[in-house]
Design a protein that fits this description.
There is one protein chain. The chain has 1 helix and 13 strands. The chain has one helix at 179-189, and strands at residues 4-10, 38-48, 56-63, 71-77, 91-92, 96-106, 108-121, 124-130, 136-140, 145-160, 166-176, 198-200, 211-213. Strands 2, 5, 6, 10, 11, 12 and 13 form a 7-stranded mixed β-sheet that branches. β7 and β8 (124-130) form a beta hairpin. The protein is globular.
Length: 216
């Protein structure tokens, strides 16, 4: 996992105000918002369960079409100042919990090009971010709903502390096709959309060692 750099800072956790954040999910999406100039990008973002998992996790994506510049961040964050963390998960499973996301974007070619995650324990705060460039491309076709998969952040442990608690050393992303689950949640949220018009564009061969494609 030498593709990450880590910076450690010391802080007093109980002096920091907690907050939560989840991937963007519009309250309403009008059917005519998906038209000849735009596309709806959907999927899910999750993290491994457990108190030693990440506090925040995010993916940054952007268009690579100069005519319609667009960029955004798919992000999640728990509140470690609340016992057991606080987060509004859309689904909770045995290994991962997470949220669906939905972004109306200009039609064109896109790439996920950066990632970041943090983890807090006791009086330390660790941050990992992508160091080397990578590009996970997907196509936002005009007038269509594009499913890009589940991105699940998994911790990599590096030994234990003096009381035997595992120490997070870095992390990697597991990319999976969880369309059956995710699309059912999205269809319940937006029943007015035409869900027969979904196209899958889940990365098959990531060009970065911090992404792994699950064999569904």
């Amino acid at each position: 996992m030498n593709k990450f750099i880590s910076s450690i800072t010391i802080f007093v956790s109980f002096f920091i105000a907690g907050c939560t954040a989840r991937p963007e999910l519009p309250k309403v999406i009008k059917a005519d918002a998906i038209n000849g100039n735009s596309s709806l990008i959907v999927g899910s973002l999750s993290r491994a369960n457990g108190l030693q998992s990440f506090d925040s996790w995010s993916l940054q994506f952007r268009s690579i079409n100069d005519e319609n510049p667009y960029s955004n961040i798919i992000k999640g964050k728990v509140d470690k100042n609340v016992p057991f963390g606080r987060y509004d998960f859309d689904f909770k499973e045995s290994k991962n919990s997470g949220n669906i996301f939905a972004y109306i974007v200009p039609a064109g070619t896109y790439e996920i090009f950066a990632t970041e995650m943090t983890q807090s324990y006791a009086y330390t705060h660790s941050r990992w971010s992508s160091k080397d460039e990578f590009s996970l491309k997907f196509q936002a076709e005009a007038g269509k709903i594009i499913y890009i998969g589940e991105y699940a952040i998994q911790p990599v442990y590096n030994g234990k502390n003096f009381i035997g608690v595992p120490l997070v050393g870095s992390g990697y992303w597991m990319i999976s096709d969880k369309s059956k689950r995710d699309l059912a949640l999205l269809q319940k949220k937006y029943p007015n959309l035409n869900w027969s018009n979904v196209k899958k564009d889940v990365v098959e061969e990531p060009n970065s060692p911090v992404f792994v494609r699950a064999r569904d």
